[in-house]
Amino acid sequence: MGILFSALRDKIYRMLDDPTGEGFSEDLLKDGIHAALDAILPWVPMRATVTLAVTSGSNGNMEYALPDDCYGIEGVYDIDGVPIRYARLDPEMYRGDASQEQDWIEYPIGHLLFSKEVTDDLTVFYVAYWPKPTTSNSYIAVPNHLVTALSLYATAYSLIPGGISSATIRQFNQRVDSGTPEDNPLGTRVEKLLRLFEIEMNRYPPHLRATRA
Question: Which of the listed residues 27, 102, 118, 143 has the most CB atoms within 10 Å of its CB?
Fold first, then answer.
């Protein structure tokens, strides 16, 4: 499962019709691959779990920092595997001492905030960002069926700088050529590639978030 960064890079170079990569820097392709790994998250995020150990502190064991790679929380369970209820902030929802049972919200961003003091370790099921490759030997551990989508998105990303530099303001121009010429053909290529990316991703069902307790 997955692909080496170097193999994905070479695939993108071929899609750019530049097999040697002379016209595009590796840093640009790396940025494009990083952006592509984020773009697939609504369909296919990485699944992960983390154990939050009970600690003593001034917050009364009611606030815990989430992992840096956390993209969204699926559920929180106590040491016995019993789900802890997710609290929705609405006028009729009590929190803190007024709450009848333990519950949690993500507040502020990147932190779990509980209504009552946590007395045992907790397990958090969450979806995570895909790790970003940093070297040619980095392994991108995504499912194999996502390689084409990553290539399409990263190729589009790599064309954006050229499209920006070739864009012109033609407010007073009069077209005399026939047909439907394009003012910025690179920009059109980017749009088509992104559309192909969406078509490719929509071949697979989007990630269904877990039902929160």
Answer: 118
